[in-house]
Specification:
With 495 residues, the protein is α/β, with parallel strands linked by helices. The protein folds into 2 domains: 322 residues, Alpha/Beta hydrolase fold, catalytic domain (Rossmann fold); 129 residues, no CATH class. The protein is 38% helix and 17% strand. The chain contains 15 helices and 14 strands. The strands form 3 sheets. Strands 1, 2, 3, 4, 7, 8, 9, 10, 13 and 14 form a 10-stranded mixed β-sheet that branches. Strands 5-6 form a two-stranded antiparallel ribbon. Helix 8 runs antiparallel to helix 9.
């Protein structure tokens, strides 16, 4: 009896030790069957979620990336069916936002403006593009359930994963394997990236084409982050914020009555023209600008921003977005406005200060996305793991050097006559503003010979413009139209 008790204790100890060894399978899949009604048509689809390795030069797994792959059932000709490859940004963000709120067959249970609703969970997405394209959502290393090996960066060569060019290189290799395993080499291919994902897909367009010999039909950038603007001080970066100030102030009813009574889309062209034609040259003059010109510019900026002339002059015409979020409603309601979506309001400890205490929109989003993605993957898609789903994973320090992604996109387009670009932005996004996105689009090809292959779509919401139900429908329709317009349809790839 004594020996039996001792043996039981040893067995229990071993089980506890095994249970504490929390690891993700390097290469595995779970397949489930579902149905959805999109645009009034009900159809069945297959969800495959699992992990696929990233290998080093010796063929040894150095990371395992978690993905979710949706295919519509009963498709007779899979080769002609488009494949959409979806990334979010960060860098360090899991591929959860567009997966559970934009293009996929399931979306969050939220209200029509995008705010959290309990009980948390998901519902059918009546606007998903799964009716016209299969979709794979990819989590880069250390985001979502994806992990480096050894896990979480211990003794891992960080230079292979955590930087603009490293990220592009290993993801392109991973996609080659994914496309091969799933027999999608003949399919028209599209890549979509949100926020930092915009930088990622600009670079991937050329990397896939020149290093994997995988040619794309389309690149879709959702609220793209262009570091050549965002992290660059100077007149252009400062001035480009003004049209966003106009949009956010209009939404918060903080503009002069003359502008407030007009529709948003009637006043934004005015603000954009003033930015390009007057504000950039004025800020470029720096401290040598004439006082009368400086005062006139401050007056016009106040007119288009909802801030006071004094606030603008105190900042020498270069108003940080963080100050705008704090100050716009300071003397009205006392709320701060959101960074990624300025429709959202926050409450700070004190009215004084130069930036908000927290990002009101991000806390709202995490409120609903975190329980939903954990529930959905574990309970509906049956992917069981004790690994934590990283909404934001440990990927820093991140190497931003040698960012040539803008020109990479230009080269890919020049070399591939099929390749087109769609840019989607929300007017109330104060982090990667819609006018920054337009500016990036304008700068990709200085020759102007590729401009007919670019299109821009704006929406009356913020960074994740698809959270607002009206924009969810419109934005998915815009992708659907983009795919239809850019399919080869028998046309040869030539100039």
């Amino acid at each position: 009896m004594k020996n039996l008790l001792l043996l039981s204790a040893v067995f229990l100890t071993i089980n506890i030790l095994i249970a504490q060894d929390r690891k993700l399978p390097v290469d595995t899949t779970v397949v489930t069957q579902h149905s959805v009604t999109v645009n009034g048509t009900n159809f069945n689809y297959t969800a495959t979620t699992g992990t696929q390795p990233v290998w080093d030069e010796m063929g040894k797994p150095v990371a395992s990336l978690h993905y979710t792959y949706y295919t519509r059932n009963s498709i007779k000709d899979r080769a002609s069916r488009p494949l959409l490859i979806s990334f979010n940004g960060g860098p360090g963000s899991g591929s959860v936002w567009m997966h559970l709120a934009y293009t996929g067959p399931r979306i969050l249970k939220i209200d029509d403006e995008g705010f959290p609703v309990q009980p948390y969970g998901v519902k059918q997405n009546p606007y998903s593009i799964l009716d016209v394209a299969d979709i794979v959502y990819v989590n880069p290393a250390n985001t979502g359930y994806s992990r480096t090996i050894p896990e979480m960066g211990k003794d891992v060569d960080r230079k292979k994963f955590f930087g603009i060019n490293a990220d592009i290189k290993y993801l392109a290799e991973w996609l080659n394997t994914f496309v091969t395993r799933n027999n999608r080499w003949r399919s028209p291919k599209y890549i979509i990236g949100e926020s930092y994902g915009g930088t990622r897909v600009m670079g991937l367009a050329l990397e896939l084409q020149n290093m994997q010999w995988m040619y794309l039909n389309g690149v879709i950038m959702v609220s793209p982050a262009d570091y050549k603007v965002i992290r660059t001080d100077g007149p252009v970066a400062a001035a480009l914020n003004l049209p966003y100030f106009t949009a956010a102030a209009w939404y918060q009813k903080a503009l002069p009555a003359e502008l407030q009574q007009k529709d948003l889309l009637d006043i934004l062209p005015e603000s954009e023209a003033y930015t390009i034609n007057t504000l950039i040259p004025a800020i470029a003059k720096g401290g040598f600008i004439d006082d009368s010109e400086k005062n006139a510019v401050a007056k016009k900026m106040a007119y288009y921003s909802g801030l006071t002339e004094k606030e603008i002059l105190d900042h020498n015409l270069s108003v940080p977005t963080s100050y705008f979020w704090k100050a716009l409603l300071r003397n009205k309601s006392g709320y701060t406005v959101g960074r990624l979506d300025s429709r959202y309001l926050g409450i700070d400890k004190q009215l004084a200060g130069t930036r908000p205490d927290y990002n009101s929109e991000l806390t709202s989003w995490l409120h609903s996305f975190t329980p939903a993605i954990n529930y959905y993957l574990q309970e509906e898609l049956k992917f069981k793991t004790d690994i934590k789903y990283n909404m934001f994973g440990p990927v820093r320090p991140w190497n931003n050097e040698n960012d040539n992604t803008r020109d990479n996109l230009r080269q890919a387009m020049a070399q591939n006559p099929y390749l087109n670009v769609l840019v989607q932005s929300g007017y109330y996004d104060g982090a990667t503003t819609y006018f920054n996105a337009k500016y990036t689009m304008w700068q990709v090809d200085p020759s102007g010979r590729l401009k007919d292959r670019f299109s821009f779509k704006g929406y009356r919401s913020g960074h994740m413009m698809y959270l607002r139900r009206e924009d969810l429908k419109n934005a998915n329709d815009d992708i659907r139209d983009f795919i239809d317009r850019t399919m080869a349809k028998g046309k040869s790839a030539k100039y």
